[in-house]
Amino acid sequence: MTSRIIIEADGGSRGNPGPSSYGALIRDADTGMVIAQRGETIGTATNNVAEYTGLIAGLELLREYAPDVTDVEVRMDSKLVIEQMAGRWKIKHESMRPLAQEAQRLLPRGDVTWTWVPREQNAAADALANAALDDESVGGSGKVGEAPPQTSAVAAPTTPAQLGWRGGIQGNPTTIVLLRHGVTQSTERKLFCGSGGSDPGLTPTGVEQARRAASWLKRLGGVDAIVSSPLQRTRETAAVVANELGLDVDLEAGLAETAFGEWDGFSFADIMERWPTELDDWLASTAVAPPGGEPFDEVAERVAAARDRILEAHPGKTVVAVSHVTPIKLLVRLALEAPIQVIYKLELAPASITTIQWWPDGTASVRNVNVVPD
């Protein structure tokens, strides 16, 4: 007989507000076995609304599958929900009050412990929430992991279609927070600037952009390591972040920008005038290199190898990787398993942030792209 239950809940919005979903599960605290779980889309909402909805779903699962249990611990990575439900924070936004009241109504008799956990310790609920959104995006119901109609402690379904990345089953994801470097004089003049040519540092504007990104990452919290391309502009950006977070920086050559060869230091207009045939060939095929440079196909291979080294060195951790336009685009393409030509359709601002999670089974989740910190 189960005597103590853990509720794990999460919710999120891709846009805030934007398409939203929640994930919730209940598990036997003694055995760790999942008793029931559920993930579902909820339309357009904010992160906080989605988080509260996940809590409500977890409490509903508790009532349905373990109604007699009175010793309950709620674990969430939403500090706001945990602190408000524990009574330590006031509920300031009117839109939160009905949700908090509904959660209060569903609370079991007895003791409820409210525990904030880091994101990586809430991976199972997070996976359910994301799988629901992905299911809906491909024409599905937007519901995953529905609990079986038993009240005994049995594991809920865990097929790939139901759990998406299956993070709660196969381990925690490694989160790579990709940060493009701040602006240089070459960036401001819109010049090709790769590896093996000019190696400019940040302008004062670029340094300020790096500081804003560093502050954003400090607010995010939970960063375990920083790696950087060895080029000067990325090393300077990474140094600002490292100073803010109190971490060291490891260099990763695979994150360096494409080598543009003879085109380095020239604008697109200059290249059109001086190398028209070579430019046409380069634009027509990712297997073609600029004169004396590196084709995107080869860059993709070294970037994938760099990704593998990061995952091997930091399993289940959160890593900030400071890099350049092309490597970041190629990592997004790799996560999406998209044709390499998709890199021509992505835009990345200086000092922008793109976040990808990779699960132990090799599947990936693109969490955001081109976020520019205020």
Mean pLDDT across every amino acid position: 88
State the low-pLDDT regions, or none: 147-170
Share in β-strands: 15-25%
Which structural category fits the helices and strands? alpha/beta
Overall 3D form: elongated
Detailed description of the structure:
By secondary structure, this protein is α/β, with parallel strands linked by helices. The chain folds into 2 domains: 4-169, Ribonuclease H-like superfamily/Ribonuclease H (Nucleotidyltransferase, domain 5, 2-Layer Sandwich), CATH 3.30.420.10; 174-371, Phosphoglycerate mutase-like (Rossmann fold). Helices cover 38% and strands 22% of the residues. The chain contains 13 helices and 12 strands. It has helices spanning 47-65, 79-85, 97-106, 123-137, 160-163, 167-170, 185-189, 204-220, 232-245, 268-274, 276-284, 296-313, 325-336; strands at 4-13, 18-28, 34-45, 71-76, 111-116, 143-144, 174-180, 225-228, 249-251, 318-323, 353-358, 364-371. The strands form 2 sheets. The protein has a 6-stranded mixed beta sheet, with helices on both faces. Helix 1 packs parallel to helix 3 (97-106), helix 8 (204-220) crosses helix 9 and helix 12 crosses helix 13 (325-336). The model is unreliable at 147-170 (pLDDT under 50).
Structure in a nutshell:
The chain has 374 residues and is α/β, with parallel strands linked by helices. The chain contains 13 helices and twelve strands. The strands form two sheets. Strands 5-4-1-2-3-6 form a six-stranded mixed β-sheet, sandwiched between helices. A six-stranded mixed β-sheet has the order 9-8-10-7-11-12.
